[in-house]
Amino acid sequence: MSNLLAGMRILLLEDEFLIAMDVEQLCRDHGAANVVTLRDLEELERHTSLAGTDAAILDVMLGGASTLSFAHKLMQREIPFIFASGYTDLDEIFEAFPNITVVSKPYAGDDLVEALAAAAGRLPASGSV
């Protein structure tokens, strides 16, 4: 395994339990120091502090609710992030977030890790996967 995410503290927004577990382990396998997984907007609202977050992986929809307003908050705070989603209306995302990588589900683990590393400035950016 690579250490592309070495020492990073990652916020993961993912409502599908098994996918969340896989992504969390994948991040740890690639060196992440900590992965905080939030599965719905209520958890997200209670998670008030983004202090110490190095990067984030966002599913576009959590339990049927959009995470796009949270994505704007990350942009304002200059926290790098990617979208990892099975959401099919990607035009809205590309229009609102033209410089943010979207990794479509199902995805290969390496694609996800490389996209996150690129967003965090650890690899050259590659666009959508």
Automatic annotation (TrEMBL):
Sorted UniProt keywords: Phosphoprotein
Coiled coil ranges: none
Entries under PROSITE patterns matching the protein: RESPONSE_REGULATORY (PS50110)
A Pfam family of this chain: Response_reg
The protein, known as: Response regulator receiver domain-containing protein
Annotated GO biological process: phosphorelay signal transduction system
Domain Response regulatory stretches: 9-120
Modified residues (4-aspartylphosphate): D59
